[in-house]
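Form 7-S
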Amino acid sequence: MPRYAAFLGSINVGGNRLTMAELREALAREDFVNVETVVASGNVLFDHDERPTRGLEEKLEYVLRDRFDMRSIAAVRSRDEVAAAIADNPFAKDGEPNMVHTMFLESDADPAQFRVLLADHEGRGPERLALGDRALYIDYVEGAGRSRLTTQFIERRLGRRGTARNLRSLARILAKMDEQA
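Output:
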């Protein structure tokens, strides 16, 4: 059975309170196997019969809605896709691992919408942006907490939801995925 990582958006922020024990139990009831959470911020590792990640995303989003009344993005990636989210990030080589993020998107962003994002962000801050495969790469340079480049700002311009993790967290998640292999 392949191992997957799910990156859930807006968990344990803004009223979306959920214990990781509750989440693990709910997923185990829905045929997710070896469910493990990494940090209490919506990172879930699991094994599942092989299927397209979009189908797993839909299944996870359904569980969140049905069991917990939460409408959250569930970006699911295979082990190789998590590795690519690190390796393909153009800011990984010269940015700080805690400042450089991969925002996992629910689908590929349209290049024209990405150009709108770049234009609308011009002059708002020092962040660097690049488009990836179902991902947006961001170097927050001065920190995500200080940035005016918010998830809502990005989602409005790209027309799709996303959830971001920094390179340090992604490396930790990838190492945990490899432990199970």
